[in-house]
Amino acid sequence: MDEERLSDNVRLYKGGSIRQGLRSFAAVYVLLALSFLLLTLLSSVSLARIAALSSKLSTLQSEPKHNFSSRDSLLFPCGAQSRQWEYFEGRCYYFSLSRMSWHKAKAECEEMHSHLIIIDSYAKQNFVMFRTRNERFWIGLTDENQEGEWQWVDGTDTRSSFTFWKEGEPNNRGFNEDCAHVWTSGQWNDVYCTYECYYVCEKPLPK
Fold this sequence. Notes:
By secondary structure, this protein is of the alpha+beta class. It has 2 domains: 3-62; 79-204, Mannose-Binding Protein A, Chain A (Roll), CATH 3.10.100.10. 46% of the residues lie in helices and 16% in strands. The chain has 3 helices and 8 strands; from the N terminus they run H-E-E-H-E-H-E-E-E-E-E. Strands 1, 2, 3, 4, 5, 6, 7 and 8 form an 8-stranded mixed β-sheet that branches. Hepatic lectin is a membrane receptor protein that recognizes and binds exposed N-acetylglucosamine moieties of plasma glycoproteins, thus mediating their clearance (from the circulation) and endocytosis. It is found in: Membrane.
């Protein structure tokens, strides 16, 4: 009798322990699930805040650049990287500080994505005269292809365009004066192409 009672007590104890263990496991599972949900919620909120801050930062960073660009275009219409260029009537001009032959000057202009100046109006002629007075500057005019047929570097023939030759020029003195420059008076003169003088480059406004 005592043995049966002891056996029943053992079974009751084991059953109670199992139920208690199951209840403890369920509680732990619920706590873990709640913790996971809480972490997920916090992560979502954090990511949303980070995205909002990144968006604001991008806006703040872009605004000064825009303002600087607008200010820069007013101060330097030919471009922030072309501050040595001068603006005149919708185009940009570079007046060199060194002397060289006509062909070297032409190559220098082309390296700067421009060309030797084409003077096709009184307004541009006056602009060049004012800037080049008392000095000689190459312009983009030559008759190397055909003697006496002067053409600009873009192929324009001077017979149907503006000219401003010095009196008595072009005269091909010495039979080798095939390139034109602006004389000290501002008028044009033909001279041999290996002569070294300053030069003027021309290019359109940057887009």
